[in-house]
Amino acid sequence: MQPLYHPPMSEVTVEGILYALSDPVRARIFVELANTDCTRACNAFARYGKKKLAKSTLSQHFRVLREAGLIRSERVGVSLQNRSRCDEFRGKHGALVAAIINSYISQKEI
Amino acid sequence: MQPLYHPPMSEVTVEGILYALSDPVRARIFVELANTDCTRACNAFARYGKKKLAKSTLSQHFRVLREAGLIRSERVGVSLQNRSRCDEFRGKHGALVAAIINSYISQKEI
DNA sequence: TCGTTAGTTCAAAACTACTGAACTATTGAA
DNA sequence: TTCAATAGTTCAGTAGTTTTGAACTAACGA
């Protein structure tokens, strides 16, 4: 399998963050990872409300989050363990990411 | 001409704001309107870097910003006068919008 | 080895965005 | 008034993106 690409923080853009988090499925994944501060397999997010997402769709969503610099994914056995990169956002995009998380949480309907 | 729709603040969503501002052309328009706190015609943004945008494209971008609740447009004579709705974001999405504006400004390359 | 589980890749279908051309609306000059 | 100019909008075609099922790879345990 291909190695997973994680951009360094210096390559993370505002536009990339906003784009990645403007999709409700991705926002929900990211907010949950950021809040619980633990790792989760992609699989754990296979349902969005009543809707079941195709594996390929979910795979794409994780790729977008990863390439925006928002999450880090590590292969562990048969699955990926994903976690937020919130701890790496000190200074640069920290305030932005925190504001987005807070807004989604207070809006609830992710 | 059709009347212009401006959603009430109660209908503005985080997702709509992020989506609207994840496009660099729209981000640039919004950040400029928010910063100068004055009105501008759509036309004033016809260039993006070296690129000249089609009138129809620009019209769509303004519609997206308007329908996300980010700007208010008023017909004045032959043109639209657009301004940011930042003053209406007290509380609800205020912190989010402020964080996005600050991030884009400190990133410069809009 | 085989079956199971987890994710990725691929190609087709469905959707969205960009554009030029034709349109509407307002203005100001003849 | 009529005419031309200016500012935006709408429309339809094309270009680009997203979603999906099917086929694939990779790791694990029996």
Oligomeric state, counting identical vs distinct chains? homodimer
Termini Cα gap of chain A: 32 Å
Strand order of the largest sheet of chain A: 1-2
SSE topology string of chain A:
HHEEHEEH
Largest sheet of chain A: 2 strands, antiparallel
Q: Helical residue percent of chain A?
A: 40-55%
Indicate the mean pLDDT of chain A. 93
The helix tally of chain A amounts to: 4
The chain pair with the largest interface is:
A-B, 20 and 20 residues
β-sheet strand percentage of chain A: 5-15%
Overall geometry of chain A: globular
List the uncertain runs of chain A: none
Tell me the total number of β-strands of chain A: 4
The value of Rg of chain A in angstroms is 13 Å
Structural class of chain A: alpha+beta
